[in-house]
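ENTRY TYPE: paired fold submission
RECORD: A
CONTENT: sequence, then structure tokens
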Amino acid sequence: MSHPLFGPEVKMMLDEKNAPGLREFCEQLHPATVAEALDDEFTPEQIWAVISEANIRTQASVFEYLPPALQVQMAEKARPQMGQLLSKMSHDDRVDLLRRLPPRVTESVMRLVDEADRQDIARLFQYGENTVGALMTTDYAWLPGTLTAAEAIDQLRQQAPDRETIYYVYVLDDPQRRPDASLAPRRLLGVVSLRDIILAPRHALMRELMETDLVTLRHDQDQEEVARLFERYDFIAAPVVDEQFGLLGIVTHDDVLDVVREEATEDLQRQAAVGPIEGDYLNASFYRVWKSRVKWLAVLFVAELATFTVMEFFEELIAAVVVLALFVPLCISTGGNSGTQAATLVTRAMALGYAGPKDWRRVLRRELLMGLALGLTLGVIAFVRGAATPDDTRSGPRKVKDAFTVQVPPGTALDAEEGASLLGTRHWDVPLPVGTPQTTALEKDARVRLPDGVKALPAPDKRADRWVYEFPAACEVRTEPASRWRLGAVIAIAVLGICLWGTLIGCVIPLALQRLGMDPAVASGALVATFVDVSGIFIFFSAAWLLLLPH
């Protein structure tokens, strides 16, 4: 979003061609503020016109803070100063930019870069994405071990303008040649902080001041390991070395923050069953977002189809106790919620290094007890709600669209009894005993609720062996209500079992996935919820079958 204060000012200066004002705007404010003011409401041509008034170093600083999509659009314009701008950018940032550009644009931009920078870009380009090599920069401060502290400070004054950071200074050996006569990276001897150099005696040598117990990174390590290392040691930067301990580059803390944000975003997307979407959500193509979302949705949708099979298996139970259908969403959501909680906690613990597959016994024991405690707590609430279900709801109403007849022994009167719902609506019910012939004989005592406005049945057709009553269309047949205590017990036991099952599944699946070398983040959220939904329905109806049906 464009900056509300500086945006209009910049537009006015552009219209007036106020070069001094634009230069002051770019050079006096922080580059991030300048980039924010130029984002969204300015075209790439206008942004070039603004920053071109500043010195090339400021142009590069502002350019690095612009959104990646806007950087690409500006690079496609290939202004003459693009080559100089790339030379002043952080080495890792310019490689990231060139990776995002179309090949034809990259080729045209590379023609504007001098030979030394082209070679540096080519070296960094060879490292795979999401590796330490792709994060590192060759923009580091270094000194030979033979310099004194006074000489080192003079040398750093010359290096500082072109270095990404000078707080850590790397002490390197003399260059060595490989068998093919090419120069190998200088071997890393140690590291010394700028603070130590400033506080050291003037004639102290670098090899005497340097720290030789080094923590280093390999260029082929996964970028997630960088974040863990920086968190553990509170580094500002860390060296990247090859097999011979030659210094290839450094990774700085600002790049680590980008990694943390990127990995956290990816994990959140995976937890929501969305494939990783690179870059800005609003600027991502519709097809890319659709593709990232539809794959998992299709898999989970097919998995959820198993619920039909489970409910079909218990079809007779649902027909006999219709009220059970009302509690299905409550029970399965409990399992999904408890499973998602467990999966999220375990996944995060593994990401932070607090737990792993080797801790599966401790995790399982903890979640077993937690599932029991949570299930008992929710079970009490479920029992109260189940037992409080009104008689009308527990009687399982069934709509009969067409008119029908009921046959009873001669002399049996079917009188309508007046009643009222919880909302005060009046109704009239006709009680029918077990075995009363309709299309088929009733298996339970039942009550037929007459349509609105009908208060009594017509006189029966009195035959010698039976009386036949005519019931109008749109009646409701209500069977004998299920026991409120048994229903409450069913809901409570089901919630306890499903909650326990959900927590166990939620903690086991991430551990198993990591053990198999997969990302445990995919176990959180939708995947666990889907698995527990299907199994939870089976647990719920099994408890109802045992307690509500006669055996």
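RECORD: B
CONTENT: sequence, then structure tokens
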Amino acid sequence: MSDSSQYPSGLFPEQMREDPPQSTSPGDDPSWISGPVLEMSKNWGPIEAMLGGTDYLRRNCTFFLPKNPKEDEDAYRRRVAHAVVSPFTVRLAEQAVGLVLRKPIQLNDDGEGADVDPFWEEFCKDVDGQGTDLDEFARKLAFSALLYGHAGTMVDYPATEPAPNLQVERELGLRPYFIEVSAKQILGWRRTEDNPLAPLGQVRIDEWVQVPLGEFGDQTVRQIRILENDRYRVYRRDGDGTQTSNWYVCEEGPNSIGQIPLSITYSAKVGELISKPPLLPIANLNILHTVRQCDLNHALTVAALPVLVLQGFDDTDNEIGLSANSAILLPPEGSASYVEPVGQGSFDAQAAFIKELEGQMSNLGISTIFSQLNQPETAESKKLSRTDSDSLLAILSKNLEASLQEAFNLAAKYNNIEPPVVSVDRDFDLQTLDGAQVGQYLQLWQNGAICHETLLAALVKGEILPGLDVELELEMVQTEKLDNMAMAMPIGNPEPPSNNEEDENAEPAAEQSSLRAEMEARIRQMAGDNDEDES
């Protein structure tokens, strides 16, 4: 820890993120970082600080919490040890991703009569070969894209001899798998032509892998993966792997699908593989809040405790014991008292400023999820307050759906099968139907304005019957209706049927009326239970 005379303003200092060392011959260096990536990286510092949390703050304390004038090293270390980062930015991103993926991702057929291949059902249980299901992988992907602006999904396939047919391929367990690629890993790219409409022809990805060392050990090795339309290459450094070592190709092979197997999820797209973190303003305020919170904590530690003052007491090196069983001997003219701050205005001002920062963070971006759930609002005010939130969530949801669809398309090319249609639910509203709204839906159903299926679908969407399978419920209701009709039939010889149409329709009408009354009673009871839980 070194001295620093410049106190930070609260915004993240650009000097903190130093550009990595670049090679003097960028044309031959696969690890060369392109200009757009270096420009984007200037906005990643605050995000990395918030992801690193308290540990990151303490490791970089000279930037966030520099020494005060004449502050000794022990006192400075104690002050740094008490510093804590409030996770506003990270929690906000987690809740936003939770809203986008609060319902499972659906895989549907293509709408042309072809069913979804059973292979995809098993694939979704482990999309990365490490036991991660599709929903969890999508959650991590969306979280990274929301914080950094974009994230990628690389679709890879085991580097083995190709199987003669699909059956042998599945018997051997050969299948594609997803790999999450953060924005920080993409070092550069180039197009096939000098044309903005031309597709990407090369993408360089920075990777760190574990390789065996001896009989039992392992070591972390950096490698650069080069993805191209017709081939791939993996570069590593020779010798001791230092910056002065040369790069060599440790692995290469053909690209069997004819395109770069990488799909990108954007939350704030600027250009091809270029974005800006949408939560950057909140991260900067979060850093300012952390610094001010540390200042207030230190001020309270120093000034909030009373100080013992002794008049007429001879100063010695002996310690003074203060307790109910000890006393201090003073001369007749001596006295003892405690001195403490008289005014608390400075503390109150600092605390008020911290509260103001929390309010600013709560009102930025998609922060309506903090206030909307805990206070009553009209339907129109809820709609207006969710405008910004839904716009960002909708952008993330649409891009996530499109990128996952592209990833499944790439995986399907490896296996030569039809890809499914990926669907991410865009119902971000957590508000459930209340008793009055349920009654209105029931009235529409009773009047014949909507059918039974529409009623159940509305109740499922309104969280009254969450997780209900509407088709199965309709089938069970119809089965129960037929069973009731069968039980109502007389055991002996039935009476001859009547030719009167009114007699023929009387029993079905009575049965339908009884069914409606029973269904209405069940739904009203469930709506009443929900109202009691909310109250």
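NOTES ON RECORD B: The chain has a mean pLDDT of 78. The two ends are 54 Å apart (CA to CA).
STATUS: closed
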